[in-house]
Protein: D-2-hydroxyglutarate dehydrogenase, mitochondrial
Amino acid sequence: MQLLQYHRSFAATCLRLVRYASTAASRNASFAALEDTDTNFFRDVLGDSNVITDIDALQPLNEDWMGKYSGKSKLALRPKSTEQVSKVLAYCNDRHLAIVPQGGNTGLVGGSIPLFDEVILLTAGLNQVISFDAVSGTLVCQAGCILEHLDNQVGAQGFTMPLDLGAKGSCQIGGNVSTNAGGLRLLRYGSLHGSVLGIEAVLADGTVVDTLQTLRKDNTGYDLKQLFIGSEGTLGVVTAVSLLCPPRPSAVHVCYLAVPDFATTQKVFVRARQKLGEILSAFEFFDQQALDLTLKHLEGVRNPLPDTQTPFYLVVETSGSNEAHDSEKLQGFLEEVMEEGMVLDGTIAQDSTQIAGIWGIREGISVALKHAGPVYKYDLSIPVAEMYSLVEETRHRMAGLPVEVVGYGHLGDGNLHLNVSCQRYDEEILKHIEPFVYEWTAARKGSISAEHGLGQMKADCIGYTKPQPVVQLMTQVKQAFDPKGILNPYKVLPQVMAVAQ
Ligand code: FAD
Ligand code: MLT
Ligand code: ZN
Structure:
């Protein structure tokens, strides 16, 4: 019986792969080409300074954070209000001009970048905090607010943003919501599907969908805001967000642990949950290769355990409200895991500088990889017990090639970041990684995107994680929200499905 089921699911996977067989995206000929009259219209609506046509100014907007994807847009627009976004979209919809929403442009799957000549819609001008309720912790703000700025603002009133990530200095809350970003504290605060209370978004035809409420509970009909969370700019442009901020923890402790093997990282995780309970706020891991790369490429990063070499390192954080109690709990946990030989060596940060130093290593890995050169990034949900085998198998497959395979991620969330650092983006190298990584993940019922999204990188690969009827339903949702398909084309859904509309 089990065998039969396995065969069925394998057959279904094969079917999906045939259906979505990767097509190099070609420009959808039904989209109009930009004309001077279009640019003049946008100048009237937005003012000259918010209509960008200068080639040098457009260049960074046409390129992604990794330097992996680039487009050829000749126009970027910077609206400053929802009304302006609505006018721009209504016009583009009438004219059949394709649009790419772009926030902080820190996305890692080529979602914020045009493939061809799509108009770039910048959300940076939507940067106002609308309100903050210091009783409930409810923040209402425009989509272009930078995550770190928001955290500083709510921090001044004793609250914290419910997410944190290495790109916090540049990424925007609208981009975070549109990618359903996970980050370093999902373990503690949950996903944005829980923290976001309301969204204001503009549909392709200019309709403003206002669900920007601040209620904790509302069961009137379908919860449409959830559709925008993680839709990567394909269903609407998010213009404002309301979200729940938890109280800022007054006692934060971070420790850095050296662990002998991957199986033991899981034992330490189980023990951390048992011993630290509600104060556990992050449980991150990285391998020796990731650490070496970070120490090599980032100035100012210091190895907290310079005399210890081991295959795996953990960053464990607690966040609570009672310094003495939390510290005692963490000490007790550490004593146990060290006495039992699970942890070979460890250190607890003594002050905020040391805390920042430890986080600097973990958050610095992606920046170090960028400094090292081109990188193929995979962002996978995999049952934790099997997670690291993928890194080892990939390393084995690529032995002898001029690449460095590193593994790190949000172990507490079952989220592996497999990265292959190489000297140039190269089809020959890619053939060793794909579809192997996707097939390996699908065989374990994992997800090919835990948190970065599908973007242009994985639009044709959604079938590895979602069954065909589900993708079909998504395509119908897309059709209902954006019948002409002008919003972020060539992203998220397979090109064949989108073109078939
Ligand atoms: P962009 O990159 O500009 O856009 C991302 C996608 O959202 C695109 O498809 C774009 O079209 C769409 N979009 C943007 N704004 C809007 C809007 N207002 N309305 C509709 N669509 C919109 N991700 C994680 O999940 N966890 C991490 O820990 C993490 N760490 C990172 C660390 C670094 C150093 C970097 C560079 C990236 C990291 N990321 C992480 C990737 C992550 O997706 C982004 O950092 C962030 O969520 C994207 O926000 P952004 O404003 O830069 O969006
Ligand atoms: C992280 O966890 O560091 C981010 O998701 C970025 C990355 O994967 O490099
Ligand atoms: Zn991550």
